[in-house]
Amino acid sequence: MSKSNPLSAAAAAAAAPAALSDLQKAKASFLNSELSSSYGYQGWLEQHWWAEVGARFGPGQHYLDYTGAGQFTTSQLAAAFQELSTTGLGNPHSNNPSSAAATREVAAARALVLAHFNASAEEYHVIYTKGATEGLKMVHAKSDVHNQHFVLLDAAAYAATHALDMSAVQPDFLTVSFYKLFGYPSGLGALLVRKQAAQRLRKVYFGGGSVSYCTAEDAWHVLSPAPAGYEDGTLGSLNIACLKHGFSQLAALGGMQAVSAHVESLRQWTYSQLLQLCHSNGQPLVRLFGRHAEGPRQQGGIFQFQVLTPEGDRVPGSLVDAAASAAGLHLRSGCNCNPGRCMANLGITPQQERERAAKFHKGPILIVMRPQGSNSSSSSSSSPEAIVRLAEQQQQDAGEPPLEAVPLPLGSVRVSLGAYSTFEDCYALVRLLGGTFTDFEVYQRELAAGMKLVRVMDDAEHAVKLRAAVALAQ
Ligand SMILES: Cc1ncc(COP(=O)(O)O)c(C=O)c1O
């Protein structure tokens, strides 16, 4: 093991009680609790984390954005590169030997995907996609004349830290991204489709090996049988060939149950610590969204929150983000991939969001009118002024009062734990929040005037000023 492994260093120091730091004390107490049995894959994380994951981020860095992108291990990457550098793979749609080898890889990986989700090859197709979003786009939303209903499961975030048993859940469609599961490769996902539901997939263009018959003159073609008929162009076969190394890495950890238990041990510790953070006037420092109080079946290792001032006002997410980045914590602010939930959490109405778009957006805007109960959609480019006019027109048409620029508490902070999260990562988060934002001494000293700006300006505009204040405090 590398001498510079900070986890090992902490463990070694823990053996000498006289020199225990706050981190070491907190970790010792965590490891003495019942949570420790599911933490760290029976010692694997302590031993290998630095060489496998930590070293590429560098000392003192804490990756806390696993829902943004999962992480790979160094040995997973080494195995993938070893394979690619010793195997001749061609275009999977031809018949020559290197093509046939690629075709075998593509088929073998479909079987691995099915096995990972415990889905049967008799029931489901695996269609390779660019990612979870592409899978969603392929599924028709409208139910047909018989009023049939279909279940589409977007498991992009869930599957990263949970076992998902398709034989029990039985969705018609399941969409996932592999970079969320094991970091590498990115730009590759899958749509699992129940065979009887395949006719609900939207397919407009074709290319590569996805068509069996067509003419250049007439507008008709016959798609190849599923799944190939639903995959556009040439598959990312080298990436697909590397999927096996990601699945092997998860298996080496003990499978998704082990990942899930590991994340849950850290979620419980972090949740209890966040609840305890408060200002000296007794007001909570963090307003936590989600269903943490209801336990792991309702809430995974994602913390969506706002940092609050002693008066209960929101600290802009961009400030927390800037302070975290400066301290080596990689988290996210904004509304992330779930604007609907985010706005519901923050109490933002559709009308307020229209006003925000109209008043604050700078530069060209692409307006996309989403279909309302139909499959038609249209889009058009427009200037900010046109957006304002459109929003005002909509207000007028709806008989609603004219628009006004309103200050909104948009943007919360998201921390998401994953397969290689460590106790040190969670400790660093709690310390950053408690150390930087308790009582807002810096904030009030440097930015007494700035608080007003916070209430009336968009986050991005004052982030620079606030960042400067954080820098002063360090
Ligand atoms: C629930 C959910 N669905 C879809 C996506 C988008 O996935 P992709 O980037 O693979 O298209 C995300 C991304 O974070 C997500 O969390």
TrEMBL record:
Domain called Aminotransferase class V: residue spans: 63-140, 148-337
Residue intervals passing through the bilayer: none
Gene3D superfamilies for this protein: Aspartate Aminotransferase, domain 1, Type I PLP-dependent aspartate aminotransferase-like (Major domain)
A Pfam family recorded for this sequence: Aminotran_5
Residues forming coiled coils: none
Protein name per the record: Aminotransferase class V domain-containing protein
Species this protein is from: Tetradesmus obliquus (Green alga)
